[in-house]
Amino acid sequence: MRSICAIEGVEAAGVKEGKYGLAIIRASGTAAATFTSNLVSAAPVNLMRERIAAGRLEAIVVNSGCANAYTGKKGYEDAVEMSRIAAGALGIEADRIGIASTGVIGRYLDLDRIGRQCKEVVPLLEHSAAAETAAARAIMTTDLVEKHALIEADGFSVGGICKGSGMIAPNMGTMIGLIYTDAEVGAADLQASLRLAVRRSFNRVVVDGDESTNDCTFCTATGAAGRVPQAEFAAALQACCASLAQQIAADGEGATKMLEVRVSGASDEEAAEAVARTIVGSPLVKTAIYGEDPNWGRVIAAAGRAGVRFDPDTVSLTIGEGEAETPLVRDGVIVSDLVRAKAAMHGRKVVFTLAIGEGEGSATAWGCDLTEKYVEINGKYTT
Fold first, then answer.
1. Sign of the CA dihedral running 220, 235, 146, 19
2. The sheet that has 316-319: what strands, in order across it?
3. Site described as Involved in the stabilization of negative charge on the oxyanion by the formation of the oxyanion hole, positions (predicted)?
4. What percent of the chain lies above the pLDDT cut of 90?
5. Contact 336/296 with Cβ under 8 angstroms?
6. What is the reported pLDDT for 208?
7. What are the backbone dihedrals phi and psi of residue 8, each rounded to the nearest 5 degrees, phi first?
8. Among 252, 278, 279, 326, which is disulfide-ready with 340 (CB 3.0 to 4.6 Å)?
9. Is the pLDDT of residue 305 over 70?
10. Mean pLDDT, all residues of the chain
11. What is the architecture of the domain spanning 258-380?
12. Which residues have a catalytic role annotated?
């Protein structure tokens, strides 16, 4: 699937040595970013919070295998040095280099390895599907699949790659998103559009409820396609981020099914978000999905603890979508057909739709089931 290298002006490459990878994407343009809200934020996050204020990047380098998080002053200095190493290999000023790291917390970067990998990757940079695939693979940790998205709009495109599988919860998760567009967008508009897109996508994914130290999403606008209507750009960016967010949910650590929860009738969008995220984050809902157990009462119970006011006796709930959509509760009255409900849980995707009858607010959130494999992966993550 094409993604970032479908955007004019973007070159990419990556290498992977066991669990240690490095990707470089070169593209000059206006840039914006969002970061984790975890108090224990990683050194590269702290550095990039300072640099992104300039509103322009020439390239981004990402290493996998070491998060460079909770590494103190040395970690920050190492993050700066990582950008200098990449800048030297690329012939670009260091303050125009974006950096990100993912992997084990509490370990220092191997700068010698990063230097060697930078020298190996830079000559491989090219504008091709193979190049974006190599970059997407290089940033993976426990991910099982690459994640690509491309939205082709009227006269411009938005493409992205990301990594993320575990330690995923609002806000964002152990995810790194690298998004590019050929639209010409000013720095302030780009930042505002990215924040809204992240809110409506990555911030609505819950795999396990743990928020990472390293979350970041970058968006670079090369401007090759010229100015486009801001509303059209914002919609395309949201569509790209939503596609990547759903791929993260589907590839959750140990997951066998993706969970989608659609909430409507809330007092506003924020309330709908809170309900949807609470449901997809519920361990009881997740385990029921894994066991294909139509225990839909867990969905109602999770909604009730989301901190949102509604009348439980007026809600409606269905499972499935399209012709397979099956009513469970209608206006507070139980109408469930448990045989049909169980059948709706057989596939790779399970959808719940909840209407709470308080207003016009709506939101969708994504997650996955919770399996024994998740425990296995995270019980032995560093060993």
1. positive
2. 205-206, 361-368, 258-266, 349-355, 316-319, 326-330, 333-334
3. 102-103
4. 82
5. yes
6. 62
7. -60, 135
8. 326
9. yes
10. 92
11. Roll (3.10)
12. 174
Nearest-angstrom CA–CA distance, 308 and 261: 16
Fold exhibited by the domain 4-251:
L-amino peptidase D-ALA esterase/amidase (3.60.70)
Annotation-wise, does 371 bind a ligand?
no
Q: Is the pLDDT of residue 167 over 60?
A: no
* Tokens at 130, concatenated: 């193979």
Which helix (DSSP H) or strand (DSSP E) does residue 14 occupy?
strand 11-17
Please count the other Cβ atoms lying within 10 Å of the Cβ belonging to residue 145.
12
- Model confidence band, residue 382 (pLDDT cutoffs 50, 70, 90): low
pLDDT-derived band at 373, boundaries 50, 70, 90: confident
In the predicted model, is pLDDT for residue 376 greater than 80? no
Alpha helix ranges (H) inside the chain: 43-51, 72-90, 111-121, 129-138, 187-199, 230-250, 269-281, 283-290, 297-304, 338-343, 372-379
Q: Give me the residue spans of the domains in the chain.
A: 4-251, 258-380
Q: Flag whether 174 is marked binding.
A: yes
Side chain identity at residue 32, one-letter code: A
Q: How confident is the model over 280-293, as pLDDT tens digits?
A: 999 999 999 999 99
Taking the C-alpha atoms of residue 268 and residue 332, their distance in angstroms, rounded to an integer, is 21
Looking at 43-52, 126-135, 137-146, 261-270, which range is the least confident one?
A: 137-146
DSSP secondary structure code for residue 18 in this structure: T
Rounded Cα gap, residues 366 and 4, in angstroms? 24
Cβ-based neighbours of 69, under 8 Å, separated by 6 or more: 40, 41, 42, 43, 75, 101, 105, 106, 213, 214
**Residue 126 among known ligand-binding residues:** no
Alpha-carbon torsion angle 280, 213, 254, 302, nearest 10? -20
222 is in an annotated binding site: no
pTM to 2 decimals? 0.89
Q: Is 163 one of the annotated binding-site residues? A: yes
Res 252: pLDDT: 76
Q: Which two tokens stand for residue 98?
A: 């974006």
Bridge partners (DSSP) listed for residue 44? none
> Rounded to an integer, what distance in angstroms lies between the CA atom of residue 90 and that of residue 125?
10
- Work out the pLDDT band at 244, boundaries 50, 70, 90: very high
Tell whether residue 253 is among the known ligand binding residues.
yes
